[in-house]
Amino acid sequence: MAAEKKSAPTLEDVARESGVSLKTASRVLNGSLQVRPDKVARIQAVMSRLGYRPNELARGLKAKRSSAIGMIVPRLSDPFYASAIEAVQQVARENGYVVIVTSSANDQALERSEISTLVRRQVDGLIIATANGKHDNFSDILPEGLQVITIDEPIRGAAYDSVTVTNKQSAREATQHMIDHGDRRIVAVVSRPYLHTCAERLFGYTDAMKQAGLAPQHCVVDQEGSIERNRAVKDICADPKVEAIFTLNWVCTMLVLHGLKQAKKIGKDVRLISFDDFELAEMLSPSLTVVRQPASELGREAARLLLGRLNGDESEKSHRIVLPTQLVLRNSCGCHSR
Amino acid sequence: MAAEKKSAPTLEDVARESGVSLKTASRVLNGSLQVRPDKVARIQAVMSRLGYRPNELARGLKAKRSSAIGMIVPRLSDPFYASAIEAVQQVARENGYVVIVTSSANDQALERSEISTLVRRQVDGLIIATANGKHDNFSDILPEGLQVITIDEPIRGAAYDSVTVTNKQSAREATQHMIDHGDRRIVAVVSRPYLHTCAERLFGYTDAMKQAGLAPQHCVVDQEGSIERNRAVKDICADPKVEAIFTLNWVCTMLVLHGLKQAKKIGKDVRLISFDDFELAEMLSPSLTVVRQPASELGREAARLLLGRLNGDESEKSHRIVLPTQLVLRNSCGCHSR
DNA sequence: ATGAAAGCGCTAACAA
DNA sequence: TTGTTAGCGCTTTCAT
Predict the structure, then answer these.
(1) Which residue of A has its CA nearest to B64?
(2) The CATH homologous superfamily of the domain defined by A11-54
(3) Which whole number is the average pLDDT over B10-38?
(4) Which nucleotide is nearest to B38 (CA to C1')?
(5) pTM of structure
């Protein structure tokens, strides 16, 4: 029939083929009602015959929006972030957006450059779990109208909408629970204590300890290192005087579980509570008592806030959603449930 | 100084401000050597003063490529896929690509529509862990030049490049290991048996059983349901005659661990091997013997294949990478390591 | 070494 | 109801 058509059909091809103008075809594409029904049908027929697919890049260029949102987390394979991403993606899809994910690998320089990449891609919004909320690491590279939502870790001094959890209060409760069990020498294990999240948890822990007249003690781990490279943690795990351990995030929990494996019997020799739940916590022996963070809700709420902003929520003041956690009592804390 | 500049500066702004033509500015942006050094410096200065950021959408529209790759998996929060995504994203970033991730939620219709979305976004390539490789679910909606790599689950009858693991052989070995331990009544637990991946594993299991003169028996689970809604699995877990269980993927493992929790002592009453490793397998009591799939390598190789294709690998025949797994012997199979 | 002009695929005035 | 005409921001012949 026609000449050799190598590349994908454009809207112009559709228009020509249906004998209408470009604009009319465009109207049909966008579901405008201003077109006579018979034409609509005819044009749609041509579209499907040609296998026409609108080019979102062109559309975005024109509309100055990409219908894409960027999401950046410290580690894509961390189950907490993975769940958050899953929730964000779902809400995004339901609203016609796609999600571009990147990892900062806990590196501030990389975080900046990744944000820059996303900005150049014209993402309409950004959801960030920053690698370090202590300083505002990127507001200087954000364009005027870009909407940003921070999750998990808020950014000090910045006015972004945020979704966080009750870190301090939850840590206090968990600590108190251990104290109620009769433990006195309770050690907190934390990584990246410069993070607001971790600092708050440590704060809550310290608070509870002091209130009970006990001496707080904590130990900082190197995220990247194995248990072998974290002498301090290893010592804590082996120390017979330590009665209980409170791990302040998933990474710490993994590390301490490793350390304890060879040293002590959890629940008996030492009690343990973990901040961050994960699929298998219940299956361990003894099952792990955890502070469960609502990872999916975090992602879902962040996506909702962002979509709200993109759909014209002009609120001057930033929305700050703080979600509750849940202390899931299982056996490692000394409870004998089940 | 100047008039009110609301929107982001464009390359034209840069050109005007530096007193050169648009093309010269473009050359500088792209690092062309055909410009006098002093001009380069001057233009770059203007760029950074204005806070200029190239618009990748415009660039992509012109170049007919987006420098984005799409990735679609059945479930974003599954640790196996999360690790694969992490690896893909890393390789992509190193090569100037971004990754748009979506989930098919194990739903073929959704998978199709998500692919369609990605195609409209003009992704340059697609990495797919399909929800069902039995039928080719989408080749009809792919445009001419789109590169596709399948991971984990190949697509029956299609000629895409693929990265998979030695499912059959690995399952055979794991089964044989249990047989060597003296177990005779070994049950395989599988979900989505219509998947090539799962079918192969089941095949390997059956093979080994028959070869040993034992009767293969398997049980299919409903992925979405809890243990309560999976009577068959629950029965298997409670059945005193069952000597060993081989779970054919992560979801099955979770389910069986739940089921076994209330019923039997793993390693003693019943032996267990899981296809799919995960962070905590070692920490369970007893620690879990697993067939470890190299999730990161899978992602990395897929990304490499894709980038190779995008950079002009014209090979007619498709590349089929098959990665080995590793049988990680821990205690749940009856081994008394450590 | 540099610039003018055309156009990627689409949408939005503004007419008709 | 429909079509014409400009661009969105960038790259790219083809001159100069």
Answers:
(1) A57
(2) lambda repressor-like DNA-binding domains (1.10.260.40)
(3) 89
(4) C1
(5) 0.93
